[in-house]
Design brief:
By secondary structure, the protein is of the alpha/beta class. It folds into 4 domains: 153 residues, Orthogonal Bundle (DNA polymerase, domain 1), CATH 1.10.150.110; 90 residues, Beta Polymerase, domain 2; 54 residues, DNA polymerase, thumb domain (Beta Polymerase, domain 3, 2-Layer Sandwich); 232 residues, Alpha-Beta Barrel (TIM Barrel), CATH 3.20.20.140. Helix 1 runs antiparallel to helix 2 and helix 1 packs across helix 5. The longest helix has 19 residues. The chain is 43% helix and 15% strand.
Length: 566
Amino acid sequence: MVNQELSEIFQQMAEILEFLDNPSDKFRIRAYQNASLAIQDAPESLEKMAREKKLKAIPGIGEGIAKKIEEYIAFGRIREFELLKKAAPKGFFEMLAIPSLGPKKVKMLYHELHIKSIGDLKKAVKAGRVQALEGFGEKSAQKILEGIEMKSKSKGRRILGAVYLIVSSIVEAMKKCKEVDEVVPAGSFRRNEETVGDIDILATGKHPEKITDYFARQQFVSKVLAQGDTKISILTKDGLQVDLRVVEPKQFGSALQYFTGSKLHNVHLRTFAKNRGFKLSEYGFFKGKKLVASKTEEECYKSLGMQFIPPEMRNDTGEIEAAYRHELPTLIELKNIRGDLHSHSVWSDGRNSIKEMALEGHRRGYEYIALTDHSPSLIVANGLKPDRLKKKKREIDELNEKLPIKILFGTEVDILKDGDIDYPDEILKQFDIVVASIHSRFGQDNTARLLKAMENPHVHIIGHASGRLIGQRNPYALDYDKLFKKASETGTIFEINSQPLRFDLQDQYIREAKRWKCKFSINSDAHSTQGLWVMELGVHWAKRGWVEAKEVVNTLPLGNLKKILK
């Protein structure tokens, strides 16, 4: 948690300094930006590294940054950051969360139009004042309005990936409490929704008041909102509300089922149960007045004649009927993944070398990893021209002689505006794996572009097919039936992109692709060694689409995978 908090703090310090725009601060801005990125890639907890005097061993962390990290670990704040926050407008970070706005544009809006909040900004756009500013115009104003609308729809919810490690560390901290028997997150977090609101955690133990007291004393707690003997609500240091409920051990299963949801799943389940003479509540599943199940979720569902329904499937999309018929699929698990087929290195826009990425893949138990750096047209991502490709291939060949993991020579190639591929066929055929993706023209129907790309015999995988960025950019228009039909004909694989901003394909389209017998590849799209962990999120997301291991190509041994790619 401290790593994530400090990474965000240094990024925010850089953003405030960019807003203040003092020429003498250019070095500090770059130092804080580099520190933010470096902390994301830190191999261990910063607390542990500080104790062992290893902070300056992290590339990008010098004496000054190390002292600020130590200050935060010791006192829970950085004095310079507290002072900088006072120099920015009250609504600065709120406006910065709008995708099309950066610190310099927020500065212009503040100084030229005295805009201090999203409310001020919306009024100024509607009055035409923003459009009149140099560097904005009608198109920028429309993007700002779309961004405000997206923020409004999210109603304060956060993308799952932004809180996943925080919540996981809270759960791990509570497992160390000697009074706790079991502790599990519930709600939208456990269902792996793309965004989450307040976090619900359930625990069980013999002394509930000691458990809530232990929770209140933890380092992650910024403020206790309410506390009783069996429930406590707190805010973490980054403003996340977490509610801990302590229930009796004999009621843990029924309570966990109830608080996991979803609301639609629970309403349907209660109706289903009522029609068969049952009554359900957080305290237990009853047949008449007789308690028939409550200790575990498995026995609760079994009491209704059902298979256990995994949390990711509890969305009222047919899972209740399928569980009653005992027709639920055996869902994929993280342990089934043998490799990652979409990742980036320093050859394009990644932050680690091929060797570093490969060794981290090996540490995670992978048999293979594909380094799919960008093609030339994506200039902003340092895409590779043919001469650099040859050098990258030589490096991979040399590493494959030495390392205990197979590195696949890959590319994430741009699908151009007419559907053509960004490398000619004579280059494409040299790759072990080709992921083809759209990185432009998001405002149009891109069905034709993707269909043409799938017809290229050298394209193996369509990357992040809808182009969406959750809370930032809507998916572009697509005719999914046409795409899935074409994929079933050509053998093209659809990526399930694990990046929390993407989760693309969306879950309802994953299920539709299954009906067309399409194959999937769950990929991290990682740009650093630390980023490889999101594969875990991608597997959970695939479960929401009812995906089985046999439908995912990167569950195969390397030899079998190569046959499919050919």
